[in-house]
Amino acid sequence: NGKPDAQTALGFGIVVIMARRSSQNGPLSSLVIRLVVNTGALAAAAGIVNYFSAGHFTLREGPFFIGDWQSAIIASLLIGLVNALIRPIVLMTTCLLQLLTLGLFTLVVNGLMLLAASWLAERFSVAFRVDGFGAAFWGALLISLVSTILTKALK
After folding, report:
1. What is the DSSP track for 108-154?
2. Is the overall model pTM greater than 0.90, yes or no?
3. CA-only gyration radius of the chain, Å
4. Contact 117/75 with Cβ under 8 angstroms?
5. Beta partners for 65?
6. Contact by Cβ (8 Å): 90, 107
7. Is it the case that residue 117 has pLDDT exceeding 50?
């Protein structure tokens, strides 16, 4: 039906594990695996954030909206682009704040990068939206956790 849900997020994880075991880990396969891991982490984070907001696991309503699986993949690419181009500049400019908070301000920066990706998605008419800093903060934290767990599972 094209709508990501809990089964889709779980499916991404299974595909990643199968791809990892069957590939020779060339540069292209590593990139595809990373994209699948990040997309799965994005879908899982959206479902969890919306669960606590809307009361049930959903990706199509709540403060963290993903319209379909294509939008999830494009949103993952946009998040990667924002993290590669904008995040290093923001981290450098907030270096003192990072030091004073013992690195905890990185969580705020990650939330802001998720909001920036959401803003870009809106400009490119991608069905991906994060409403508010709270959803972005918790979403970014969950994306990091799920992505780390899936990446560790592949090693």
Report:
1. HHHHHHHHHHHHHHHHTT-SEEE-SHHHHHHHHHHHHHHHHHHHHHH
2. no
3. 15
4. yes
5. 129
6. no
7. yes
